[in-house]
Design goal:
Length: 153
């Protein structure tokens, strides 16, 4: 069997971890398991850079313009029920230009701000354990320069 037929590929996703006045920007989204919390996050699209993806996903899910300033980390997570593996690139950065009239992505019920204590208290409603892990890494000061990433056009 040729190597290309056996090659396994994870789902590559991006997430924005944004803190303001002690609270984090989250989305409440409809999932197969009911309403769940997550960071603004989504899949990398064909030909898109990781930075472009996190800017796009944050705008689509929260109506905020996001400017990434650092990579918090790269996370691998295998969802138990589906067996799908996600490779998440989490970024922190700055917000500007909120458009309150912009419709949010399908499935997004609300964009909201929650303090870290409330995020810890609502673990049962998290879309995945990556939400809390990314917040904890952010709070621990974990930051990597964006020039760590290279996108060949």
């Amino acid at each position: 069997m040729p190597d290309q037929d056996r090659q396994w590929k994870p789902n590559v996703t991006v997430a924005a971890v944004v803190e303001r006045n002690g609270a984090f920007l989250l989305v409440e989204e409809q999932t197969a398991d009911g309403l769940r919390y997550n960071q603004p996050a989504g899949h990398l699209e064909a030909g898109e850079s990781l930075l472009d993806a996190v800017v796009r996903e944050t705008l689509e899910e929260t109506a905020w313009q996001f400017t990434p300033t650092a990579l918090i980390g790269v996370y691998q997570y295998r969802q138990r029920q589906s067996g799908i593996t996600y490779l998440r690139f989490a970024f922190t950065g700055n917000l500007s230009g909120h458009d309150a009239n912009r419709p949010l992505d399908t499935g997004i019920v609300d964009a909201l701000w929650l303090p870290a204590a409330a995020i810890h208290a609502t673990r049962a409603r998290h879309r995945s354990p990556l939400l809390l892990q990314c917040v904890e890494d952010y709070l621990a000061g974990q930051r990597y320069p964006l020039d760590l990433l290279y996108h060949h056009v």
